[in-house]
Amino acid sequence: MDNGHLSEAEIERILSSEASHSEGEKEKDLLAHCRGCPECAELLNDYGDIHREIESLKELSSHVDQTQCPSAELWIKLAAGVMDKKQAMQLVKHACECRSCAQQLTRAQRRRP
Ligand SMILES: [Zn+2]
Ligand SMILES: [Zn+2]
Question: What residues have their beta carbon closer than 5 A to ion ligand 1?
Answer without folding.
Answer: 5, 37, 39-40
